């Protein structure tokens, strides 16, 4: 079964064309293209490899202003693309939990592909930027993704010192939790209500 989507979004601030393919469980994915934000591209590459998804991205944004619009809008588009590619949410394993260490840092993600979007995010960064990405935009990206994917998303850095390591652990833990939750459930809807 092909699980693919193509979402386009154009505003006065950004122009995004994103293709997403959810691959077989355990099959590394790949990221092609650029957001125009180097560190965010690095994180998207990790998300693809560990989340078993391919992303092809064509994007321009008003980076002469700052990275906010590009980061948030990309989260919106990625969330919509994931939701569409995942298809009927009642046919998925639904839950995913992952702890990922990155050197001295440890991050945890727990999520439910529930159609009840929510974000709980507990992470602190020492610096204002990692590369060319404002650290406060990391939460904005995850919020935009969760609310547009229909996911209840809890993310936390349990401990750590290096901002790069903390951010990367967060993205990789999201990837692993998504890979688990997006697996096909052959037994029907995993809900005591009979529907999500």
How many H/I helical runs?
4
Percentage of residues in DSSP E strands: 25-35%
This entry's quaternary arrangement is single chain
Fraction of helical residues:
25-40%
* CATH level 1 name: Alpha Beta
What can be said about the biggest beta sheet?
4 strands, mixed
Number of domains: 1
Low-confidence blocks of residues: none
Which whole number gives the mean pLDDT? Answer: 94
Shape: globular
CATH topology name: Ribosomal Protein S5, domain 2
Q: How would you spell out the order of helices and strands?
A: EEEHEHEEEEEHEH
E-strand count:
10
- Numbering strands along the chain, what is their spatial order in the largest sheet? 1-2-4-3
Instruction: Tell me the distance between the termini.
Output: 22 Å
Q: Would you identify the CATH architecture?
A: 2-Layer Sandwich
- What Rg, in angstroms, do the CA atoms define? 16 Å
- SS-derived structural category: alpha+beta
């Amino acid at each position: 079964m092909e699980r693919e989507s193509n979402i386009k979004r154009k505003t006065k601030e950004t122009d995004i064309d994103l293709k997403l393919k959810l691959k077989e469980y355990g099959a590394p994915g790949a990221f092609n293209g650029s957001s125009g934000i180097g560190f965010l591209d690095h994180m998207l590459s990790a998300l693809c490899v560990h989340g078993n998804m391919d992303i092809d991205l064509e994007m321009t944004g008003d980076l002469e202003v700052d990275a906010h619009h590009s980061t948030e809008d990309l989260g919106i588009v990625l969330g919509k693309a994931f939701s569409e590619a995942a298809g009927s949410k009642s046919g998925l394993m639904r839950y995913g939990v992952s702890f990922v260490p990155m050197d001295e840092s440890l991050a945890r993600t727990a999520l439910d592909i529930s159609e009840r979007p929510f974000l709980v995010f507990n992470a602190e960064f020492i610096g204002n930027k990692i590369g060319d990405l404002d650290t406060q935009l990391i939460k904005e990206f995850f919020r935009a993704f969760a609310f547009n994917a229909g996911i209840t998303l809890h993310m936390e850095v349990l401990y750590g010192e290096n901002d790069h390591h903390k951010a990367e652990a967060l993205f990789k833990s999201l990837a692993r939790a998504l890979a688990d939750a997006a697996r096909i459930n052959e037994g029907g809807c995993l809900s005591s209500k009979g529907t999500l």
